[in-house]
Amino acid sequence: MRLAILSGSVFGTADFLADEAAERCAAAGLQVSRIKPASVDALLAADAQAILVCCSTTGMGELPDAIMPFYSELQTRFPLLTGIPFGVIGLGDSSYGDTFCQGGEQLRELLLELQAREALPMLRLDASETVTPEVDAEPWLDEFIGLLQNG
């Protein structure tokens, strides 16, 4: 199974998490394309059979600058990803209330609009509760990998 992993980060945490996820997924036997920086052309060229996005939230619930061009291009080009399983790991801070993990949620909603299929509900990691999101994400990642391996 070919898995494309993309990330959008402000301070590097989501990028680091995506790198760690890529290693874990590759070790489990998936063919991983770590797409950095995220671009629609690179995603389409990867011929991905599954997608994983790790994204932080900035400001008042916005996407990080690093992934905004990808998000805008996905909206403009609107390449249908019909039936492709995906997962999103959102990073945020629950003290921001309603905008907690909103960056990841925006990407999740766009992937659903593009007819991709959410393999597993979005993982929301709270910066006010964890200092090791890569460790906290492991159980979710293992479940995601299992779902991809078993169709």
From TrEMBL:
Keywords from the named record: Flavoprotein, FMN
Gene Ontology molecular functions: flavin adenine dinucleotide binding; FMN binding; oxidoreductase activity, acting on NAD(P)H, quinone or similar compound as acceptor
Cofactor dependence: FMN
PROSITE patterns: FLAVODOXIN_LIKE
Protein's UniProt keywords contain Oxidoreductase: no
Flavodoxin-like domain residues: 3-145
Cellular component terms per the entry's GO annotation: cytosol
Entries under Pfam families matching the protein: Flavodoxin_1 (PF00258)
PANTHER family: NADPH OXIDOREDUCTASE A (PTHR19384:SF128), NITRIC OXIDE SYNTHASE-RELATED (PTHR19384)
Protein name: Flavodoxin
